Amino acid sequence: MSNALYGPVPNVAEQAGYQDPPPRMGFFTDTSVCIGCKACEVACKEWNLVPDDGGPLTGMSYDNTGALGANTWRHVAFIEQQVPARQAVDLGMPGIGAPGAQTAAEPGQDADIRWLMASDVCKHCTHAACLDVCPTGALFRTEFGTVVVQEDICNGCGYCVVACPYGVIDQRKDDGRVFKCTLCYDRIGDGLEPACAKACPTDSIQYGELDVLRARADARLAELRADGEAGARLYGNDPDDGVGGTGAFFLLLDEPEVYGLPPDPVVTTRNLPQIWQRTAMAAGALVVLGVASFLGRRS
Amino acid sequence: MKETRLVPDADFDSYYGRPILKGPVWKQPDVSLYFFLGGLAGASAVLAEGAALTGRPELQRVSRVLAAAGITAGIGALIHDLGRPARFLHMLRVLKPTSPMSVGSWVMAPFSGLATAALVSDVTGVLPRLGRTAGIGAAVLGPALSTYTAALIADTAIPTWHEGYRELPFVFAGGATAAAGGLAMVATPASERGPARRLGVMGGVVELAATERMRRRLGPLDEPYRQGRPGVLLRAARALTAGGVAAAVLSPRLPVLARPAGAALATGSLLTRFGLLLAGRPAAEDPRHVVVPQRARLTEPVGTLSG
Ligand code: SF4
Ligand code: SF4
After folding, report:
1. Interatomic CA distance for residues B32 and B230, integer angstroms
2. Closest ligand 2 atom to the C-alpha of A171?
């Protein structure tokens, strides 16, 4: 199988063994229109019966869940940034004095606050490290190309937790098993959209066929760039990236690390052939040591 | 040791300094113990077969006990570590070459049966032929059992573990033989101690050299191995292993040194496992270790840091 561990995969479900799978489904999260309402977090918890874990505010702006985890499958990040002041648009309202006199910024007002908000989620990677390393087969690839844990199989070995390059999947301590976003496997099979996308009032979270979403994202990026939003970029949309592109990708307005995302994640199993090779060499060395220890004096 | 910053903080952005990766949820001391005991058992099975081939019954008995008891206790620790211990057997539901834990389970399961059978036959004298065959089987699987755990932690997103993948298997192979040789030195009478001593010395040297080489290569990613409890453990481990090697080399002339030397080699190997594994959490939770090398790779497209 080509690119089994790394590189672009045209049809990830087919590679996983499905015959004539439906199109790959995913999320496009356009953070430029996110208003930080957390409807996605709430809808996800309601539909998927995810236990409460948020608390009072964390002190990180309006964030009260902190990070993705076993009990947070959508996490809304809030970033407050100082940016150079923008010239206010003259709405032509009546004022005192000559027209235009009131529009200049007051002295000392040369900085604005910019508020970035972004709803993070499991990336449903093309090369999903969590799935690769899972020893029980609990994590599997669905016919939609998404990555889901079978909770009746997972034995809580915790390997997937340290394998995910985005720090998404985690163990529920009281339960012992691991949990993460399923891309609402139970809804999309019935033709419904995932709960978060359904609840999002601004269409910041869009669900659909990945190819369609990618084209839409390209257009949206071009639009924002034309409007002068120089920091706008897509994240996870590139099949040539370190995880073969993600099923859930994003439009960001700043560097990924500002949002708590790794700037250039690479699936750990890319190096698996070398890892096994070195391990085999070391096992061979152990045999050599064993043989050598019997050469020489008896006592 | 003096702290060196990877880069000035100004060059590094993060989301409120929060971790990007999740640290291991593995229980301690269970998992570190399992890594040690599995390694010990695998190398002991090799030693036992050598002893059987060369007619050293005492050494054979001791190493068969180490192999069987080591893997039994190790599996106990491993099951206890699981979030759902009752589902331990799900480990054998599938065989996945992409999962070192899966491959390891398929090595461990037959190994434990073979090592136990070999010991029972050796002790009771029942079915000696079959017992030896079982022992040979355990010796064939042993080297894989001793080293797969290195592949397991290398095959993770934690940069300090992953980037050590070239040397980690040798650290573990060396540590496993140091432990097996060391404990066999402690328990074997002087007349048959030779192979155990040589195995312990060579294992200790390999462990020290591979660890050193790995940590040099890691550069700034070595920080979690220097700081805090892992740092203390790894420094103690190095001193014990080095001391154990020296004492073991002197022990043919100074036999009183043999047992302490063996104990030091085994303890050094144990503490190395603890140090390496306990460093996983601080390594995962420092966003610098994720962002800085990845950023560098993006800005200098030639010569990746990971690879
Ligand atoms: S983001 Fe992490 S948990 Fe989600 S599919 Fe990728 S590796 Fe798995
Ligand atoms: S914790 Fe569960 S889902 Fe994760 S690797 Fe282990 S068995 Fe698989």
Report:
1. 12
2. 1
